[in-house]
From TrEMBL:
Keywords noted in UniProt: DNA-binding
Coiled coil: none
InterPro entries found in the cross-reference section: Cro/C1-type_HTH, Lambda_DNA-bd_dom_sf, TransReg_Diox_bact_type
Keyword Zinc-finger on entry: no
Keyword DNA-binding on entry: yes
Protein name listed in UniProt: Transcriptional regulator with XRE-family HTH domain
Family matches, as PANTHER family: HTH-TYPE TRANSCRIPTIONAL REGULATOR, METHYLPHOSPHONATE SYNTHASE
One family name in Pfam for this protein: HTH_3
Residues annotated as domain HTH cro/C1-type: 14-70
CDD domains from the UniProt entry: HTH_XRE
Amino acid sequence: MEKSELLRITGKRIQQLREQKGLTQVDLAGKIEGEFDTTNVSRIESGRTNPTLYTLYRIAEALEVELKEIF
């Protein structure tokens, strides 16, 4: 699997989880621990950036899911 495909799949999964929770990108950014901009959520969900493992952990925490559910 290519890096770009993995980023796209991961981003779509985050988007799916966020929408299942009834959250907007702004809502999710506000729930993520620490400073986190809405544009970062957008870039991650569209697969345009490579988030760190810690960022993915923070997103999972904000979505109230286990990290493995993102993958």
